[in-house]
């Protein structure tokens, strides 16, 4: 576009001087940097203020110094892993919110997955009894006479008028010579908790597991008493 004023010609290109054009961009850039810095500071504060996780474990009996008793059953027991849902293969503490909904605590966790802790408690308790020639974790190259395995169905806090914990566990034993299942024991119990805090829930779950393992050990003793090993 061009306009004429008097005898001269004035050129007009419709734009602002170059210096004026760049100033708003610099302002916007500085503002963006300031906003990003504030966001970074806020995120850093959130991370630094995050609650540290607390870890819990079940009571594991000591088998140190346990000697085989004179009347020990002359068999080697192999304790295998437990099948279960993925929730009990992780380290989160599980709670039930109604009959169909489950949740987990974010900052309250197990030191090991529940399946591994329960397997260890059972293994140590069988060893501590001194009733068997040997008790080992089952591995592919480990020789043995009988193998114990099972399924963990429940290991959780149960909400209700009074808070409790539920452990449901089914174990079976297989004769490795014949492949036949010769023993099984099913356990389920709701153990009352002394409060709603996580430490009280953990204590109730621990008590429940100890009771379950005691039942299993006694039931195995009864089996071998009525089925003497040859």
- The first-level CATH class of the largest domain is given as Alpha Beta
Integer count of domains: 2
Work out the strand percent: 25-35%
Euclidean distance between termini CA atoms: 112 Å
The total count of strands amounts to 10
Helix content: 25-40%
Instruction: Give the mean pLDDT.
Output: 84
- CATH architecture grouping of the largest domain: 3-Layer(aba) Sandwich
List keywords for this structure.
alpha/beta; 33% helix; 2 domains; 230 residues; 10 strands; eight-stranded mixed beta sheet; Rossmann fold
Folded structure, characterized:
- With 230 residues, the chain is an alpha/beta fold.
- It has two domains: 10-48; 54-226, ABC-type transport auxiliary lipoprotein component (Rossmann fold), CATH 3.40.50.
- 33% of the residues lie in helices and 34% in strands.
- It has three helices and ten strands; from the N terminus they run E-E-H-E-E-E-E-H-E-E-E-E-H.
- It has helices spanning 18-48, 114-129, 198-226; strands at 2-5, 8-11, 54-56, 73-83, 92-96, 102-110, 132-137, 146-158, 164-175, 181-192.
- Strand 9 (164-175) and strand 10 (181-192) form a beta hairpin.
- Helix 2 packs across helix 3 (198-226).
- It is elongated, with a radius of gyration of 33 Å.
């Amino acid at each position: 576009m061009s306009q004429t004023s008097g005898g001269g010609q004035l050129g007009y290109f419709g734009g602002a001087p170059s210096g004026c054009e760049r100033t708003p961009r610099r302002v916007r850039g500085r503002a963006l940097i300031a906003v990003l810095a504030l966001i970074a500071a806020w995120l850093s504060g959130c991370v630094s203020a995050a609650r540290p996780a607390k870890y819990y474990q079940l009571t594991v009996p000591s088998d140190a110094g346990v000697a085989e008793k004179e009347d020990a059953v002359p068999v080697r027991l192999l304790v295998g892993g437990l099948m279960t849902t993925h929730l009990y293969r992780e380290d989160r503490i599980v709670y039930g919110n109604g009959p169909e909904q489950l949740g987990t605590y974010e900052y309250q966790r197990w030191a090991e997955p529940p399946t591994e802790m329960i397997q260890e408690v059972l293994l140590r308790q069988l060893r501590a009894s001194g009733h068997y020639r040997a008790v080992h974790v089952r591995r592919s190259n480990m020789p043995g006479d009988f193998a114990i395995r099972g399924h963990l169905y429940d290991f959780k806090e149960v909400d209700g008028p009074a808070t409790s914990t539920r452990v449901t566990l089914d174990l079976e034993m297989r004769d490795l010579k014949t492949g036949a299942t010769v023993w099984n024991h099913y356990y389920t119990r709701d153990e009352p908790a002394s409060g709603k805090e996580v430490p009280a829930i953990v204590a109730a779950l621990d008590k429940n597991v100890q009771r379950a393992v005691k039942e299993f050990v006694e039931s195995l003793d009864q089996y071998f008493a009525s089925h003497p090993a040859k």
